Amino acid sequence: MKDILLAPVYFIYKLWIGLVFWTSLMLLYIPFRILLSKTVWYEKAFQLKRIWSGFIQKAIFCPVRSELCSPLPIGPFIIASNHSSHLDTVFLYRVMPRYFAFVGKGELLKWPLFRLFFRTSDIPVDRENSVRAYQSLQKAYAILDEGRCIAIYPEGTIPASSPKMKAFKKGAFRMAVEKNIPIVPITWQTNYKIMNDPEKLFSPSLPHAVRVVIHAPIFPKGSEEQDLVALRDEVFRVIDSALPEQYRKKDIQQSNEL
């Protein structure tokens, strides 16, 4: 009954989020295009993304409350977070001060304006095309070799059960093991309340504080397949442990997908 009564409010708030996001991106498109025209300017483009993220966060009335459990590692690392909202990526720019390239699904290349990022600094992954997927993997390795970071959602998509997590794919953890670099797990605790699925116009969507936990880095303990699996499972448990108790997984069959 509550959701039925508030459905018009949810609808209006989602329209407001869309207006803020797309209008601000249109206004910043030319500056982004200039800064992303040269690799040496990617860091400046990243700083502009952080400013843009801060504007969106304030404009949609969602203050950020972040908990940093440990200093970030020196050198390259992989950011791995749960994926509960289409706003996760925008807010990640706000809470993560270190430059990172985002690894996302290839469909993002079809998004108007936003695709600019994935044609330049970020990394689209086309799982249906093995050649393009390999090229994306090589780009990710090259970024790590340069001493920079990458960010990835190990679930691969927003699960229907969000914020309850689905199985993690292996890709991020294989990179961490092969490059012997740490994973920094991140738990988004409230983003699903702000906007989970923008296509369901009348589903719950209201302003909330963006509560996020940036966990201590987790280092690979070896280079064998079992070490990869152990790393994946540990990262899953850490991210899951900071979710509201009713959404934590007691047991899960992890994915063998890359």
Short description:
The chain is an alpha/beta fold.
Structure characterization notes:
The chain is of the alpha/beta class and 258 residues long. The protein has one domain: Glycerol-3-phosphate (1)-acyltransferase, CATH 3.40.1130. It is built from 8 helices and 7 strands. The chain has a 7-stranded mixed sheet, sandwiched between helices. α1 (2-35) runs antiparallel to α2 and α6 (171-179) packs across α8. It is globular and about 55 Å long. It starts with a helix and ends in a 17-residue tail after the last helix.
Tell me the name of the CATH class. Answer: Alpha Beta
Structural class: alpha/beta
Specify the number of helices. 8
The string of secondary-structure elements, in order, is HHEEHEHEHEHEHEH
Share of helix among residues?
40-55%
Low-confidence stretches: none
CATH architecture tag? 3-Layer(aba) Sandwich
CATH topology, which one?
A: Glycerol-3-phosphate (1)-acyltransferase
Shape type: globular
